[in-house]
Structure formats: C-alpha cells, structure tokens
Design a protein that fits this description.
398 residues, alpha/beta, Spore Coat Polysaccharide Biosynthesis Protein SpsA, Chain A, Rossmann fold, 3 domains, nine-stranded mixed β-sheet, 13 helices, 38% helix, 21% strand, globular
Length: 398
C-alpha cells in the first residue's frame, strides 16, 4: 500500500462528503486506502455516509477521543509507505496527492510534508508554513511583532513569511490539516502525543520528526481549508484548549530551561489566556445587556457560473431557498474569463459566493481561479449535483 489517508470527523458530515469526493479523484492511479474516524458526531455522520462511500473504512467512536488519539487509531490500522492526516473540511486538487508522493519519493530524507492551504476567498493561509515555536519565536508572535514584521527572518519566524509561496521549501512545523508523513519517519518519531486533545499535536509531532533527523517540507500544491480561518477563537472552549496545548508543548520540550526563562514564558501564556477570557466575557455581557451594536450578517449574493444545464438545476435550488442569486452561463465549466468578469464587477462591501458545479469542474481548476483572483469578500461556493446541495464556509443549502 502506497498511501493511507486518515480523516478525523466531528459534526461536519457535508464537508466530509465533499472532502471524500475530492479524494476519489485525487487517489486515481494510487494504491491508497481511506479511513474516517468519527469522534461520536451528533449529525449521524457514519450512518448517513457509510452506504454512499463503500470504499471508505469508517470507525464510529462511542466517545470524542480528541484529534491525536483518533488519528492514532487510524494510523495503527494501516501499513502504507506514506500516511496522510487530513481534516474533513478540506478540498484537495486532482493532482495534489500525486505531486506530494512524487516529491516524497524524490527526497528520501523528507519525513513530513505540508501544502499550500487556501482560505475560502482564495488567499494563502499563513498556517501553511510555520517555524518551531521556540520561547523567542512564541514571544514575537504573542507580542505582535510577528504580525508587524511578517517577512522578517527572526521576528516573522512563526509563520516563515519570508519564504516564497510558489516554491518548495524546508519548514519546521506542518499543519495537521494536511500532514503527509513517511512511515519509517513516523515509526522513529512516534505517533501523535495523546496528551494533546486538540491543537498542538501537529507542532509536537513535527518537532519530533526534526529531532529524529528528518526534514519537513512545504510544497506549493493547493488545497482548500474551510474552517481554518473561521475557528471561534474567542470562545471559552478554544481559549482553554489552545492555551493548555501551548503549556503542554512548552513543558514537554522547554521545561529544562532555567527558572529565569521558564517563569516569564509560563506567565506570558497565562496572561494571554486570561486576557482572551476577559475579552470574551466582556463581549458576552455587553451583547446580553444590549450595549453592543447589532451586527447582523448581510445576506450574501450567490453567483452561479456554469453551463446552461447546470445553471437550470442551481436556479431551482436558489429559488427554493430564497437566495439572492445571479447566473453566468458559459460553455467552459471553469472559465477564467467568466470568473474574472464576475469578480471585477462586485462591490467590495457585498459578501459574495461564486458557485461552481463540482460535477463539471475540476477541484484543482476552482482553487486556481480563486487563488489568482483573490478578493476578501468573494468566497468559494460549490454545487454538488450528486446530492443537490450548495456548500460554503458558513452554510449548507439543500
């Protein structure tokens, strides 16, 4: 077996199905297997999808075991040359996996590989390349110097913003949203540390791959990561889990530092977490008492770009759901001219989804169109003729 793909799912059934649909195209010609480890979802993920995806091995957990433990369940069941940890809220291009495997085959010391992750508007996600969060790198990130000087080799090390986006490069930390690893490297470095429930486990494993003598790489082949940009980072749960993960990583890898370095770093982490919690609590109270302005989300415009036959089906779905919609008919499913025309005429204040039929368009072409014509308020939308649904980063329309 060349490749084993492990997907940990939790209450993202429709995104998972789209991820699987993109994988079916991407694994053509590859000796691969796909495992879905469902962490006790409440949306009937396994029941709804198992019969529609007979080539996928589903494991239905009776508890939410967290990201690390669930991934380890899948890894232990496989014996492939390469292992890919993949988030369910992603779309991979048709050639993504082939390019990754080819690169790993050509670079024998490559232990892990990450890719160019796109946000929903086609812009690059900074998490695609990261540096090791050493005490000083973490300090530059937490105090805002990284954001102010993103391309500085020292101050911007956290996101390695000085690296070119369109060339392969050695990096230190690979995102767990798409983390391909060589089996022999994983055997030497060990599996994911299950002390991490969510967040931090990819940083820890990436570091252990480096410590084991392997290289970690960034490859500029594109994927879409839906929720990476919209995680509720102001929620109580996020603050608790994220900063707890930071403490676990620090104690594990930098606990040997002198007390003069140890204490300030711990204090900075606790201070950052406390500040985030105070801000969250304050905003919640103000909203409850009606002191904050009502920022209702403006209804988005849906622009469907496809052939006449596909547009007809999309029009029926849009009418049934009362969507504010426009339609551009083209004979080319992923037409760069039609896409550029639609983007050019859009107001910068209007939230817009450009919706493409994934039954007609290659995922790779859709990602390339948005990457070359990125605008903050214009996001990727997809229409699935197989399930007759529209998928965006915020909603499922059926």
């Amino acid at each position: 077996m060349k490749l084993a793909i492990i997907i940990v799912s939790y209450n993202v059934r429709h995104y998972l199905q789209q991820c699987l649909d993109s994988l079916y195209r991407a694994v053509e010609g590859i000796d691969a297997e796909i495992y879905v480890i469902d962490n006790h979802s409440k949306d009937n993920t396994v029941k709804k999808l198992k019969g529609k995806n007979r080539g996928v091995k589903f494991i239905a957990c009776n508890h939410n075991h967290g990201f690390a433990k669930a991934n380890n369940m899948g890894i232990r069941r496989t014996k492939s040359e390469y292992v890919l940890l993949l988030n369910p809220d992603t779309i991979v291009g048709e050639n993504t996996l082939k390019e990754c495997i080819r690169f790993m085959d050509e670079h024998e010391n490559a232990g892990g590989l990450g890719v160019r992750m796109l946000k929903c508007n086609g812009s690059d996600a900074m998490e695609s390349r990261r540096g090791l969060p050493t005490p000083m790198t973490a300090f530059y990130k937490m105090c805002g110097l990284c954001a102010k000087y993103p391309t500085h080799k020292k101050l911007g090390k956290y996101y390695m913003g000085y690296l070119p986006w369109d060339e392969p490069a050695k990096i230190e930390i690979i995102s767990g949203a798409f983390m391909m690893m060589r089996r022999t490297a994983l055997d030497k470095a060990g599996l994911l540390d299950e002390d991490f429930f969510m967040y931090g486990e990819d940083i820890d494993l990436s570091y252990r791959l480096l410590k084991s003598g392997f290289d970690n790489w960034y490859l500029p082949t594109k994927i879409l990561h839906y929720k990476g940009e919209s995680t509720q980072k102001s929620s109580f749960k996020y603050v608790h889990v994220f900063y707890e993960a930071m403490l676990i990583f620090f104690k594990k890898h930098y606990g040997h530092l002198s007390i003069w370095l140890n204490m300030p770093i711990k204090a900075a982490i606790y201070l950052k977490a406390t500040t985030a919690l105070i801000k969250t609590t304050s905003e919640h109270i103000q909203k409850t008492l009606g002191f904050m302005p009502d920022r209702r989300r403006k209804s988005p415009l849906y622009i469907f770009i496809s052939t006449k036959e596909s547009i007809s089906r999309c029009r029926s779905l849009a009418d049934r759901n009362g969507l504010d919609a426009q339609y551009i008919v083209t004979q080319t499913p992923a037409d760069p001219a039609a896409h550029a025309k639609a983007v050019k005429n859009i107001s910068c204040k209007t939230p817009v989804y450009l919706v493409y039929d994934t039954g007609l368009c290659r995922y790779e072409d859709i990602l390339n169109l948005f990457s070359k014509n990125s605008k903050p308020n214009v996001k990727i939308g997809t229409y699935s003729p197989r399930f007759n649904i529209i998928i965006t980063d915020n909603e499922i329309i059926a």
